[in-house]
Design goal:
The complex is a heterodimer of chains A (453) and B (92). Chain A is an alpha/beta fold. Chain A has 15 helices and 15 strands. The N and C termini of chain A lie far apart (54 Å). The chains are: A alpha/beta (453), B alpha+beta (92). Chains A and B meet through helix 1, helix 3 and helix 9 of A and strand 1, strand 2, strand 3, helix 2 and strand 4 of B. Chain B: This is UPF0237 protein PV02_06655.
Chain lengths: 453, 92
């Protein structure tokens, strides 16, 4: 037999026992040709474009899932940032565009659609501002639409006016979805250095340098890495790194086979393969568990940042060898609500917001799915965002903030979102004010690292 | 499709007639066995087959359903997966 039985059984074990999956197949669709000054025509153009491009997305993905026997969890769409598409439209409220996206997403049967977005790192156009102001209502009146705003890059610095606005937008979004624990905020993320080809929500959008229609694939397997690390007998940290690298290689290879086949069948360009360890609430499918397998008593204790740095780097190395199309974010995600190990660590008091912030300097994305008290002032949320944007800007990496000020809840309470979003213990934020700092506005200039041309 | 070869795995508690039952379904669907190996691993009956499908418009999902159904009768898990799943994953 050409393929070794042990390899076959290993693959089957990864899928059956260790939650290995293709987390998402994301079709990126350019909406640049949909622009129109009349909002009704714009909406019609958008609806037609999405439903035409993606009409076979779900069926094709399901067929490929059956062919290879690897579960594909989510089917998604990302579109050109709506602020750009709707710029010429003078309508002050863009909620109807979000509702059009939602309707198109529903009609083609996908799980999420991302791209109710704006890129405002250096400043805002009237269209950007209209979009940002529409975010709370848009997220409250849709189910599948995700929104992201890029407020900083290494090249442009941090737009602190936008950062100040973000705190207020997040508060308002939480308020409008207060009967569901502020779930609107789970669909909204603020970015520094947002990648154009990220298949993961809520931050996915179809960047303006992308082709007409692409297929990006997000592969995930924290459970597989966790079990591989735990199977090692008294390894050194070098051995652990080696083991993670090899495992990441295998996971990436599988994602590439599936992504290319889906793209081929849909006659779309294969974009990137994003190998990220994105946890799920399932036991063992946890990034925190991997860190603990390296020898930490509880995630968040001293040494956690170092362990995470090792993990993230090894994942990237394994992925880079396995495919020439590795992109997006590729690394380890550390959302709190979606990771059973992280939730436990918060509940036992070993993991704080400050430590999470430190960890974000060495991993993918940033402060993700963190519940904070509903009474947290908008300026404090903006300040949390500013800190995270600074980490991204200075370190030339992507960072993001997705926090949920849960209406009516305080530290020690728990909010349930259900499904992949999981549940989140409300975490403590610093009670001292950042009001004056945030209210100054303006822009934090691009750092000296920006001058690399 | 690059090739139409599939890996079929049957895993579960050993019982009389599993091989006969499973291969009967394969014959009904005109699926040819290229290679077959069977071992007991960790107390589990494990059969791995490399199968070939020559028809152009083969109805894979009905075949998968029939195989899984037959497996269910014997209390074993049957999977039919394209060989690329394994080939690409482990080899450079």
């Amino acid at each position: 037999m050409l393929i070794h039985p042990e390899e076959i059984l290993e693959t089957i074990k990864m899928v059956t026992n260790e939650n290995l999956d293709i987390r998402t197949v994301t079709m990126g669709i350019s909406l640049r040709d949909c622009s129109h000054p009349d909002i009704d025509t714009l909406n019609e153009n958008i609806y037609r474009k999405i439903t035409t491009c993606a009409k076979d997305l779900v069926k094709t993905t399901d067929d490929v899932q059956n062919l290879y026997g690897i579960p594909i969890i989510n089917k998604r769409i990302s579109v050109t940032p709506i602020a750009i598409v709707a710029e010429s439209c003078n309508e002050p409220d863009l909620t109807s565009v979000a509702m059009t996206l939602d309707r198109a997403a529903h009609d083609v049967g996908i799980d999420f659609i991302g791209g109710f977005s704006a890129l405002v790192q250096k400043g805002m156009t009237p269209g950007d501002l209209r979009l940002i102001n529409s975010v709370p209502k848009a997220l409250a009146s849709t189910k599948k639409v995700c929104s992201s705003i890029n407020v900083a890059t290494t090249k442009a610095g941090i737009n602190m006016d936008a950062v100040a606005l973000m705190g207020r937008i997040i508060k308002e979004t939480a308020h409008l979805t207060r009967d569901q624990g502020g779930i609107g905020c789970a669909k909204f993320v603020v970015f520094a250095n947002a990648p154009d080809d990220n298949p993961f929500m809520a931050g996915a959008f179809h960047g303006i340098g992308e082709p007409e229609c692409t297929i990006n694939v997000g592969v995930s397997g924290p459970g597989v890495v966790n079990s591989a690390v735990r199977a090692l007998e008294d390894p050194s940290l070098g051995d652990i790194s080696e083991c993670i690298k090899k495992t990441a290689f295998k996971i990436t290879r599988m994602g590439e086979v599936i992504g290319k086949e889906v793209a081929r069948r849909l006659d779309a360009k294969f974009g990137v393969l994003d190998l990220s360890l994105a946890p799920t609430p399932a036991i063992g499918d946890s990034v925190a568990a991997i860190l603990e397998a390296m020898g930490l008593e509880s995630c968040g204790t001293h040494g956690t940042t170092a362990a995470l740095a090792l993990l993230n780097d090894a994942v990237k190395k394994g992925g880079a060898m396995a495919s020439s199309s590795v992109g997006g974010l590729s690394g380890a995600f550390i959302p709190v609500s979606e990771d059973a190990g992280m939730i436990d660590a918060v509940e036992r008091g070993s993991l704080s917001l400050d430590k999470l912030e430190a960890m974000t300097s060495v991993c993918s994305v940033g402060l993700d799915m963190i519940a904070i008290p509903g009474t947290t002032p908008a300026s404090t949320i903006s300040a949390i965002i500013a800190d995270e944007m600074a980490i991204g800007m200075i370190n030339k990496k992507t960072t993001a903030v997705r926090v949920i000020p849960v209406p009516g809840k305080t530290v020690g309470d728990v909010v349930e979102f259900g499904g992949l979003l999981g549940r989140a213990p409300v975490m403590n934020v610093n009670s001292f004010s950042s009001e004056r700092f945030i209210s100054r506005g303006g822009r934090i200039p691009a750092p000296i690292q920006a001058l690399t041309n | 499709m690059v090739s139409s070869r599939f890996i079929i795995t049957v895993i579960g508690i050993d019982k009389v007639g599993i091989v006969a039952g499973i291969t009967r379904v394969m014959a009904d669907f005109n699926v040819n066995i290229v290679d077959i190996s069977q071992t007991i691993m960790q107390d589990l009956f494990t059969m791995i087959m490399l199968a070939e499908i020559k028809e152009e418009n083969f109805d894979l999902s009905s075949f998968q359903k029939a195989m899984a159904g037959k497996g269910h009768e014997f209390g074993v898990e049957v999977k039919v997966q394209h060989e690329d799943t394994f080939r690409f994953m482990h080899r450079i």
